[in-house]
Amino acid sequence: MNFYTRKWIKPEDLNPNGSLFGGTLLRWIDEEAVIYAIVQLGNPHVVTKYISEINFVSSAKQGDIIEMGIEAVNFGRTSLTLRCEVRNKITRKTILSIEKLVFVNLDTDGNPTPHNKTEITYAYMGIEKTNK
């Protein structure tokens, strides 16, 4: 899993207990995951279909730097399934894990449509490369 997105926990991100508000973290994850899916599928019309059990392992507090890791685990006909882990950047301690986030590829009318992808691709200056 690659960890690219980092967030610095600020006072506005905290719950009344002084730790990172779970809803804020889930919003960040959903945004990062859909961006990942859009890039992989090459289509801006992608929606969140399903998020499996969310396992909050530990908390983050003000001043912590966290990082989100996302990886593709399955390419369906119209869907892409991802896995996510969030951890503390300094201690590497897991904060949260989600085994399945499913995104569906849509056409311009909002209907599921095949994406014809079978593996992770990376776009470099208009040239697609596959991860093998």
UniProtKB/TrEMBL annotation:
Record's keyword terms, sorted: Hydrolase
Any one annotated GO CC term: cytosol
Gene3D superfamilies named in the record: Hotdog Thioesterase (3.10.129.10)
A Pfam family: 4HBT
Keyword DNA repair recorded: no
Highest rank taxon of the organism: Bacteria
Record InterPro entries: Cytosol_ACT (IPR040170), HOTDOG_ACOT (IPR033120), HotDog_dom_sf (IPR029069), Thioestr_dom (IPR006683)
Domain HotDog ACOT-type, chain residue ranges per copy: 1-109
GO annotation (BP), single: acyl-CoA metabolic process
GO molecular function, one term: long-chain fatty acyl-CoA hydrolase activity
Matching PROSITE patterns: HOTDOG_ACOT
Record family assignment: Belongs to the acyl coenzyme A hydrolase family.
Protein name (record): Acyl-CoA hydrolase
Source organism of this protein record: Sphingobacterium allocomposti
